[in-house]
Amino acid sequence: SGFGSHEFQNQPTGVDVEANLNISLEEAVNGIERQISIDGKKIKIKINPGTSDGQKLRLKGLGRSSVQGGTKGDLFLNIHILQHPFYEINDGELFYNLDVGLYKAVLGGKEEIKTLDGKKISINIPEGTESEKILRLKNLGLRNADVRGDLFVKVHVAIPKNLSEKEKKLFKELSKLRKDWFGKGKETMSFNFNRLTVKAQEI
Fold first, then answer.
1. CA of 137: how far to CAs of 103, 147, 153, 181, 201, in Å?
2. 41: how many CB neighbours lie within 10 A of its CB?
3. pTM for the structure as a whole
4. Beta-carbon count within 10 A of 105 CB
5. pLDDT tens, the chain, 203 aa long
């Protein structure tokens, strides 16, 4: 069946069985029909949209019996959502971790991401975006009954490494023009890559 299980007594002959079922975040958000094998029989199960990690799915009469030919207990599937490379769920909200280059963060631009239901969307990166800034995209988050929440995109600004001599020279020239970025002492630095800013749709 692909999942481990343990048993506990529920009724005189029926024995309930617990098993773990791993699903992807896409399957949890969108819902899916899965086929599992129990004692050599193939069973179709339905994962509803909006399924959460740790949720139990009860399948009546698919457990075991303590005596041959006796009444069977139920099968309880413990749902575990696998980690996603870009998306995560935090306090019931859907977040996307987006890496953005330093130049695009400074100058602004566009980034394309793929939603969990397979759509490609273009995100506007405002000029002067700081690392850890959160952008809010309405109606692209988790479903709750008939209502869909918002998607929160957390921007991570990547600092360029292994700079060429020409690039270093340009940054030094920029530092002379922008004392508020590269001023003397921490007190004068307003370009803080670890600060979370909040404004309008940028949370």
1. 23, 15, 8, 29, 8
2. 8
3. 0.70
4. 24
5. 445 556 555 446 789 999 999 999 999 988 999 998 888 889 999 998 888 899 999 999 888 888 887 888 999 999 999 999 999 998 889 999 999 999 999 999 999 999 998 899 999 999 999 999 999 999 888 877 778 889 999 999 998 888 899 988 988 888 888 766 554 444 333 333 333 333 334 44
